[in-house]
Amino acid sequence: MNNNKMNNKKRIIIILIVVLILVVIFLFCKNISHYEIRKDRDPIIFIPGLGGTQLENIETKWEEFPNCNILQRSTGLLWASNNPFPGSTCFMDLMKTEYDKDNNTLKTNKNIKINVKKEKIGDVNSTSCLNDSFPNCLGSKGVYGKYLFKSLTETGYKYGIDLYSAGYDFRLVPFGNALDYNTYSEENNHVGKYFLELMYIIEKAYSYKKKKVVLIGHSTGCKLICLFINMFRKFSEDGLIEKDWVDKHIKNTIMISPAFDGSPKALKSILSGDSFGLPVGKNQYKKKSIRYFASLIFNIPLLKQSYDKGIFVKVNDRKYEVGYNNEIGTDSEMIKFLNNIAIYDKDFEDVVKIYENMLIAKIVSFEDIKLKTYIIAGDNCNTPNHFVYDNIEFSNDPNHVNKVKGDGTIPLNTIELILNNFSFMINGDEYKINKWKNAEYKKFISDNDKNLHTKLLKKKELHDYIINIVSRD
């Protein structure tokens, strides 16, 4: 009897050991790359979207931030940190920017110094995970470009050799003078300084094997790529930089969930405090804290085509609307809409000024970049593009939201703008944008994702598509 019990115990132990071995083998095989090393690879530079870059607090005069208790007073990772927790009053006080309307400058609070977290220029770590700690970078919401980078390295890409990232302080970029190359190095020309850094990374990636680079953008990063290329073509023509610099150094672009005309959700975020997917919480105080994030304002749509039925606000039984009744979509309607809000909320005047500062940059970024461009859009997610509010205080979510096809953040019709000729007017001046001649368009259909905008970066199907573009056997 005892022998039978012993034999049964042995069998159970053996079975458990076999199961454990099989599990280990399964996990090992699962992690084996399905990619092959490809020797012929185009260098890659990744340009992230709004909120897709780690920011760190270098030094702080804590006595100037009374909302930060002693446990929250630490330097290091700020975006997106565990302490102070994103969305806390301390966190928002540290992240806020300040607009100086007299000098038309946008700055970080003088009592804190914030930089992009990176060991060196072009470091991918700042855009891999927004929080490096466990379990944030294991597979949770903290993951950003990690899985895309992993798939690329499995084909042979090496960090700092042919795989780079160009993160930026999205609170400040793209505010500044994008049109004047001679001012690019000035302290408050945030977009200019960023473009000089991007230029340096491109030239560094190119120099390794004298191979043209591929720029991969996500969301707002796509619009920055467009602005960068179109401006550097002009600077080259004007003799400010090397002749034909763009065509010498850049092969093509891949644009994932491109925010060609921003997102209606960006305006909703600024109006009513919606987080826009950013870890900032939601209330009136935090709404005003993120109002001056340059990239968020940059994403307020410009064109009628970006809306289905416009944006409506009821004020004293009067209805203000944006981009609906005009035969040609017009930004002057948007500016008028923002100015109407500023009548009731004086703080909003600064939002209008910041928006106007980046207006020409928005227009330039619509123009054909004259490179082979692969446009990748998420589809089959309900995407807001029309809001109706009951009051000018925007104290609550809109009482009506219309939704269309898109990735949950960017409507498809916003992405598809550049696939056709279109025109718009600003202050009586008509702008005509020609269809991009060398654009290839692909949609990824969501099965059950409510929002595919950032999740798309994790999809193996997307990685396979990109790898087939940038590398060969």
Describe the model.
- A hairpin with a 2-residue loop joins strand 11 and strand 12.
- This protein is 34% helix and 21% strand.
- The model is unreliable at 27-32 and 323-331 (pLDDT under 50).
- The chain is an alpha/beta fold.
- It has helices at residues 2-31, 89-95, 125-128, 146-154, 190-209, 220-237, 245-249, 264-272, 284-290, 294-298, 331-344, 348-357, 359-364, 412-415, 460-470; strands spanning 40-41, 44-47, 55-60, 76-79, 97-100, 105-108, 112-116, 163-165, 213-218, 250-256, 311-315, 318-322, 372-379, 381-389, 400-406, 422-426, 429-433, 439-445, 471-472.
- The chain has a single domain, classed as Alpha/Beta hydrolase fold, catalytic domain (Rossmann fold, 3-Layer(aba) Sandwich).
- It contains 15 helices and 19 strands.
Task: Offer a concise description of the structure.
This protein is α/β, with parallel strands linked by helices and 473 residues long. Helices cover 34% and strands 21% of the residues.
